[in-house]
Amino acid sequence: MPASPGAIALHWFRNDLRLDDNPALTRAAEAGALLAIYIDETDDTLRPRGGAQKWFVHHALARLDESLKAKGSALVILRGASRDLVPQVAKSIGARHVTWNRRYGQAERDLDSGIKAELKDAGIAAESFNGHLLYEPMEIRSQAGGPMRVFTPFWKACRAKRPVEAPLPPPASLPPLPAIDHLPGRVSLDDLEFLPTKPDWAGGLRETWQPGEVGAQKRLLAFLAKGFRGYAEDRNRPDLPSTSMLSAHLAVGDISVRRVWQVTEQALAARETKASATDAEKFFAELGWREFSYHLLFHYPTLASVNYQPKFDAFPWVTDAGALAAWQKGLTGYPIVDAGMRQLWRTGFMHNRVRMIVASFLIKHLLTDWRAGEAWFWDTLCDADPASNAASWQWVAGSGADAAPYFRIFNPITQGEKFDPEGHFVRTHVPEIAKLPDKFIHCPWEAPGPILARAGIRLGETYPRPIVSHDEARGRALEAFKALPAAASNA
Q1: Helix boundaries (H) for 270-405
Q2: What is the mean pLDDT of the chain?
C-alpha cells in the first residue's frame, strides 16, 4: 500500500530488532515517512529484562541503528512507560499510523490493547503483526476448540494448518522524518546503562556472541554448514559444536523464525548441507517446542509464577540458601552440573541437555522450588524468553504441560558420562579438575588419593565434595513426589 502524501508512520521496535522479515516495519514504511523507536519500558506490569539479555540488546540496538541509517532512517531510543510514551510520541509527530509486532504475555497484551484504544480515540491507526512466531497461539486449537496441552499433537496440528509463511525482504528504503527537536522520554543508548561496568562481567559474552542481524545470519549459516549434520543425535552432546546457538537471536528478534525455517529448507533442497531428514525434522521440532511454549504462555499467562498443575501447590519445597548459592556458582561437587552453571555465568548460554540436568538437580536433588531456577536463568541467559524459560522449568519440575514424569530424576554422573564421555565440556568450564582421568572426571570423589594428588585436587578445598548424595537425594525426591495429591490438573 503506497504512502499518502505527507503521511507519517511510527514503528515501535520490541522483540524484533531487525529490518529483515519485519512485517510491522514493512507496513510502516509503506504508510509514510518513518520514525523508528525503541522503548526501555518502565511500566510496572512488565518484567524487566535480565542483566545478560540487556547486554545483548544494547549491542543489537547499536547494529539496528546502523542498519536503519543505511536505509535512510535512524533509531530513536526512549525510556518510560510505553502506555504513555507511544500515544504521546505519535501525537507529537503527527503520525497517522503506528505499527508493532505482537508479544504474547498477558501484561504485554493488555498494555498493547490500551495503547491501541488511545490511538484509535485520537484518530490514529494502529496495527500489530506476527513477527515472532511461525503460528500464533490463537491459531492452533484442540478438536474441542480449546488450547492444546501436549506437544506432539500440537506440532502435528501446526504442520497441518498451513505451510510456514515465506519471510519478507527488508524494506528497500525507509523514508525518514525531518529532524525532531524534542520527543518525550528520549535518551541515548548509553543512557540505558544496559552494559555492566563495575564490574564488567561481560567478557565471556563478548567472546560468545555477535548480536545483530549480521551476527544472527552468520550463526545460522555456520550451523547449517558445520553443526546440522548429525543434529538429531549430537544435539545432546555439550562437548560438540552441534547446536544452532540461535536462541538469543530469536529471543530479541534480530533474526526471525520464519527466516531460519526458510534458509534451512533452502539449504536442504540445494544439498548445501549433509544433514539427514531426521536431523531436519528434529531441528524443526525444536522450533516447534518454542511455538508450543508460546501457546502455553498465551493461554496460561502465569506460567512463570504459578504451577500449571495445581496439585504441585502442595509440594514440600525446601528453602536452603546455601544449596541454592552453590548451584548458582557451579560449586555443587557434581562436575556436569557445575560446568553448566559456569558456562551460563561466563557466556550467557547453556547447552540444552545440560539445562535439563542442572534444572533436575536443583528441583529434585535439592528440592528447591523451580521458580528460583527460572528467575536465575531469566537474569543470566542472553536467550531469556518469557515462554520457553517458564515452560521448560515447569516441564522438568513435572508441574507443567506435557511434563517429564516425576520419577525421571537425572543422575548427574551417568548423564555426564553419556553426553560428555571424554570430559571435554567439564574440563573447559571446571578447569580445577581438568587433569583427572576420564574415568573420574564426572565423579572426582571416587578417585583414589594418589590420582587426586597428581591432578592437584584437594576435595573440599580446591573443588567441593558433592553437596548431596545422589542416591539419598533421589529417594527423598521420589517420596516427596509420590505424596502429591492426585488432584485434578490442567494436564
Answers
A1: 277-299, 321-329, 335-347, 352-360, 370-380, 388-397
A2: 95
Residue 116 is placed in which grid cell?
491501541
Q: Among residues 306, 321, 322, 266, which one has the least CA distance to residue 401?
A: 306
Structure-block grid coordinates of residue 153: 499433537
Separation of alpha carbons 472 and 401, rounded Å? 28
| DSSP states along 198-209 | TT---HHHHHH-
Specify the pTM.
Answer: 0.96
List the Cα angle 94/99/102 in 5-degree steps: 150
Backbone φ/ψ region at 185: left (φ over 0), alpha (ψ -120 to 50), beta: left
- Domain spanning 1-130: which CATH class is it, in words? alpha beta
Q: What residue spans in the chain does CATH classification 1.25.40.80 cover?
A: 133-166+213-299
The residue to which cell 509420590 is assigned: 482
pLDDT tens-digit map of 91-118:
999 999 999 999 999 999 999 999 999 9
- The per-residue pLDDT for range 249-273, each reduced to its tens digit, is 999 999 999 999 999 999 999 988 8
pLDDT value of position 177: 81
List, in order, residues 6 or more apart from 40 with CB less than 8 Å away.
77, 78, 79, 80, 187, 192
The per-residue pLDDT for range 388-415, each reduced to its tens digit, is 999 999 999 999 998 777 788 999 999 9
Do the Cβ atoms of 489 and 310 come closer than 8 Å?
yes
Specify the CATH class of 310-482 in words: mainly alpha
Catalytic residues: 286, 289, 317, 352, 370, 393
Architecture label for domain 133-166+213-299? Alpha Horseshoe (1.25)
Helix (H) or strand (E) holding 430: none
Mean pLDDT of 363-372: 98
CATH 3.40.50.620 range(s) for the chain read 1-130
Residue 222: other Cβ atoms inside 10 A: 14
Domain with CATH 1.10.579.10 in the chain: 310-482
Gap between the Cα atoms of 162 and 157, Å rounded: 9
Contacts of 1 (CB under 8 A, 6+ apart): 27, 30, 31
| Alpha helix ranges (H) inside 209-299 | 213-222, 231-234, 247-252, 257-269, 277-299
d(CA 467, CA 131): 45
Which cell goes with 470?
545422589
For a pLDDT cut of 70, what percent of the chain falls above it? 98
